[in-house]
Amino acid sequence: MQRLSPLDAMFLHQDSPTVPRQVASLAILEPGDQLLDYDRLIHVINERIDLVPRYRQIPRSVPGAFGTPVWLDDENFDISLHVRRSALPRPGTTDALHELVGRLIARRLDLDRPLWELYLIEGLEGGRVALLFKSHQALVDGSETVDLAQVLLEETAHDRDIPHEEWNPRSEPHAAELLVNTVSRNVRHPAEALRVTELNLGRLARKLPVIGSDGQTPSSVLSTQLSRHRRFASLAVSLSDLRRIREEHGGTVNDVILACIAGGIRGWMLTRAEPVTAKTSFRAMVPMSVVAKDGLPTSLGSQVRGHLLSLPVGESNPVVRLHQVSYALKDHRETGSAVAANKLASLPGFATSTFHAVGARVADAEAGRGHQIVITNVPGPQDALYLAGTAVAEVYPCIPLSGKRAVAIGVTSYHGQVFFGIVADRDAVPDVDVLAQCIEDALAELVVSVDDRRTRAPRGRQRPARS
């Protein structure tokens, strides 16, 4: 029997109608000769689910809460309860897709079944279909279990023979057996038992009335009491534009992305008549892959560590804003622990979705650092990926909201483009599409700065006199 880690147990316990603990990703597939339909999707998943056995397991509590829950086979596993169909009303616009995704990511997973769902969304404009992957934060840890998208998406459009064995669930142990096994483990691993005690005390503390400050982040446009509903917006930009800006102004593509988000938040606040001064900033939690040993480990060759960054939203000059972000992240690059973007992008399958899930775990594990927004940015493969022979055109991460954070942003580069997925509280941010547009406008400002510098006469040389 494998046990949930204390962190996984915390995610399971904190799952609520206003804070569903699940990470998601939206993939849009191109129309082709071989249309991906429901039956074909079920067939592909059945072929590959053996690679991720936890997708057929459920967490079961230990009597007396003497230990964290254990993973047990679901004796009544029914894949049709996890792979579902949905369709957009004609003409299947992007706005309609955003509305549907917002509703689906707000819907809690059934904790009495394996902790994942996959929606096949039909009826998009141009004959496309979309897939929405949803996994609980207690399920995908990047070490024992990877995201389902990483298993399903691959580099070839041709069918492959995947070894498949008939699955027979193991029967659930009796409560007495669970209890004896747990007590024995606690004796052998006292440090783990202490963490379980701390977890139980934390549960008790959350049930007690709070006196005075609740320790949450300061009130701001990005802070709210979360509702049960979400909004979603997406944005796709050219990776070549980001690289041009990097080459001209220095830093990394990640610096450019974060500067665009800072500029986008600034523009969005101005459209809402929110006060913006030169000192306005927001603390962003930016999980990053490192080779050091002080992050959350993954089975993908690196660990993920949270980096706290002050977004210079008050800076009006886009180039200065970029330099401020680059300078703030300079230490991370110079320590030698940073993992190169091309190394992450070359990992097999679509490892990007797993890294986003681990990044969201890191952000929640470090909630005590008082960040106001979570931003995950993971470079993905630049060659096309396929699912059951159908090419993937776009991929958008959906990072969960928690605490009082009203907005979370996930960014993925793939096949020459960079895709932003923006999740927001429905009541607090009814204009999430405006935020997406403002991020695009902030990028356009930086593109103009590059074009202006290239057309400007070099310093120290005079323009030729007109005849």
UniProtKB/TrEMBL annotation:
Residue ranges of domain O-acyltransferase WSD1 C-terminal in the record: 301-446
EC nos: 2.3.1.20
Residues annotated as domain O-acyltransferase WSD1-like N-terminal: 4-257
Record InterPro entries: Acyl_transf_WS/DGAT, O-acyltransferase_WSD1-like, O-acyltransferase_WSD1_C, O-acyltransferase_WSD1_N
Catalytic activities: an acyl-CoA + a 1,2-diacyl-sn-glycerol = a triacyl-sn-glycerol + CoA
A Pfam family assignment: WS_DGAT_cat
GO CC entries: plasma membrane
GO molecular function, one term: diacylglycerol O-acyltransferase activity
Pathway: Glycerolipid metabolism; triacylglycerol biosynthesis; Lipid metabolism
Domain of life: Bacteria
Keywords: Acyltransferase, Glycerol metabolism, Lipid biosynthesis, Lipid metabolism, Transferase
Biological process according to GO: biological process involved in interaction with host; glycerol metabolic process; response to hypoxia; response to nitric oxide; triglyceride biosynthetic process
SUPFAM superfamilies in the cross-refs: CoA-dependent acyltransferases
Broad class of enzyme this protein falls into: transferase
Similarity remark: Belongs to the long-chain O-acyltransferase family.
Protein name, per record: Diacylglycerol O-acyltransferase
Lineage: Bacteria, Bacillati, Actinomycetota, Actinomycetes, Propionibacteriales
